[in-house]
Design a protein that fits this description.
257 residues; alpha/beta; 53% helix; binds nicotinamide-adenine-dinucleotide
Amino acid sequence: MNVAQRVCIVTGGASGIGRALCRRFAAAEARVVVSDLDLAGAEAVAAEIGGIAFRADVGQERDLASLIAQVEQRVGPIDVFVSNAGIAIGGGPEVPDDEWRRIIDINLMAHVWAARALVPFMLRRGSGYLVNVASAAGLLTQIGSAPYAVTKHAAVAFAEWLAVTYGDRGIRVSCVCPLGVRTPMLTFGDNRITALLSPDAISPEAVAEAILAGMEREEFLILPHPQVREYLARKTDDPDRWIRGMQRLQRRLEETA
Ligand SMILES: NC(=O)c1ccc[n+]([C@@H]2O[C@H](COP(=O)([O-])OP(=O)(O)OC[C@H]3O[C@@H](n4cnc5c(N)ncnc54)[C@H](O)[C@@H]3O)[C@@H](O)[C@H]2O)c1
């Protein structure tokens, strides 16, 4: 899909990948809606690119439903919805349930709620594009964060299901799975994880460029880091070998503690 003149919503548009994507959409002459929990940040990006800002907490279904209804009414039919907003927390099974539920809501249920509100419109029109930003952690894993790895795997699974179910009815779906990206998220807490991801980290602008190119080709899996395709092939080819390799990485990380 070429995004020129299309109505494109980006959640988490005030920072990082979302902001770079809003700018790149605007450069491609899309009609951009910048949505974020941080309204001032969304307004700043919207003012810069001639877009429109909306506050929405993607962890709340009513906010997403209202964002979609308002844009449909006030701006026009939504052609592209990018579920980009996401959070990262560290830890494993000891993470309290309310934090697990919060990250599940933001990293997974936001994609479900956006689809719930938008798919009926898109099916009626016979067209539309859902771009779900997951992570390479959703294909591989995330050392140091079970909630992030699990919710991103679930986001990939949901995107696959959407593509399989609605692909013949005009809805396009892409799932974006970057490795490290130089945004505030990369420095979210554990310095050892930041150090692990930093050598391969790319700019949010490079991710936005990869997303536009992938959308142009209507490609399901958008991999801004090409090496992820090879890592995924190694994992599916020999899961035990892959686990042993990841265990070595985990040990190295613990040794630097
Ligand atoms: N940075 C990386 O290394 C990396 C790698 C792979 C995938 N990702 C994914 O890319 C996406 C964007 O991450 P980023 O690196 O640009 O992060 P970022 O922290 O720079 O930006 C995230 C944006 O989302 C907004 N946000 C957070 N919670 C929200 C909520 N409940 N409702 C609405 N907006 C909310 C924040 O205000 C912020 O503007 C995320 O889904 C993330 O998991 C990031």
